[in-house]
Write a structure and sequence with these properties.
Order of helices and strands: EHHEHH
Strand order of the largest sheet: 1-2
Strand content: 5-15%
Structural class: mainly alpha
Radius of gyration: 19 Å
Length: 98
């Protein structure tokens, strides 16, 4: 499914976003459609988050970019934390078994 691309009309229907909104976030380079106006699956979550921020909280495009950046950073740090915990657990088990 990661390689799936979603037509603009389908994205608008699924997420309930407007054409103007899609054009605005493309112009701000928050997401990019291909030459046929299709979006990768990875863009759908970004579009949904930005739409909710604008619609529910009146967050402008610059603020949406900041929020997306912070969310991505939190996800990376969570992954790093899981890796550290795994490493610690492995070493603690290894030390206990020695």
């Amino acid at each position: 499914m990661s390689g799936q691309r979603w037509p603009r009309a389908e994205v608008r229907r699924i997420l309930g976003v407007t054409e103007e909104f899609l054009l605005a976030i493309e112009e701000a380079e928050i997401v990019r459609a291909d030459s046929e106006g299709r979006y990768p699956s990875s863009a759908l979550e970004r579009i949904r988050i930005c739409w909710n921020l604008e619609r529910d909280l009146a967050v402008n495009l610059a603020g949406q970019e900041v929020v997306l950046h912070l969310l991505e950073r939190v996800q990376r740090e969570r992954q790093q934390f899981r890796e550290v915990l795994g490493w610690l657990g492995f070493n603690l088990r290894r030390g206990r078994d020695a």
